[in-house]
Amino acid sequence: MNNLKKLLLLVAISVSSFSFSQDGGPSKRSVATVTGNFCVVLDNTKPVQEYYVADATNLNWTNAAQATKLCGFYSNNLVSYVADFASKKLYIHVYLDRTNGAKDLEWWNAYLLSLCH
Questions:
Q1: What is the model's pLDDT at position 9?
Q2: Using CA atoms, how far apart are residues 97 and 78, in angstroms rounded to an integer?
Q3: Tens digit of pLDDT per residue, the chain (117 long)?
Q4: Sheet holding 89-94, edge to edge
Q5: To which H or E segment does residue 17 belong?
Q6: What distances in angstroms separate CA 66 from CA 69, 72, 80, 93, 109, one per listed residue?
Q7: What is the crossing angle of helices 64-74 and 2-22, to 10°?
Q8: Which pLDDT value is given to residue 77?
Q9: What pLDDT does residue 11 have?
Q10: Coil, helix or strand for 72?
Q11: What is the pLDDT at residue 25?
Q12: What is the pLDDT of residue 27?
């Protein structure tokens, strides 16, 4: 039964990952960067956006389950990450409406860097 629960959870995450990656479409996302330590930096040439995409090659994912687990570890109430293992992309959603007042790009980048290892 425990394996069935794990399988159902993985399916649910995969379905939500697909819908998340389609939301806004990659062409409408700003670019971010991510290092092997999961340090995310948002594009500083534009005002802060809600959706970003980053090349995740530096994260050295070995499989889709590991990528999903890593994204779940770093996601929280202010930012969520979804892995696209096949394309080696990291989809980032910063929840601009969940902070106490509007925050600028400098604040978001400092916040995201505070989460990396």
A1: 46
A2: 9
A3: 565 545 444 444 554 444 444 454 545 899 999 999 999 999 999 999 999 999 999 999 999 999 999 999 999 999 999 999 999 999 999 999 999 999 999 999 999 999 987
A4: 40-42, 30-34, 51-55, 89-94, 79-84
A5: helix 2-22
A6: 5, 10, 16, 20, 25
A7: 80
A8: 97
A9: 45
A10: helix
A11: 52
A12: 58
Residue located via tokens 């697909």 = 18
Cβ within 8 Å of residue 87, ≥6 positions away: none
The DSSP letter of residue 53 is E
91 token code pair: 């989809």
Cα–Cα dist 17/11, whole Å: 10
Q: Are 68 and 61 in contact (CB under 8 A)?
A: no
Report the predicted TM-score, pTM, of the whole model to 2 decimal places. 0.77
* 92, amino acid identity: I
Q: Which residues contact 102 (CB under 8 A, 6 or more apart)?
A: 96
Distance CA 10, CA 60 (A): 20
Taking alpha carbons only, the member of 43, 9, 33, 6 closest to residue 89 is: 33
| Type of residue at 46 | K
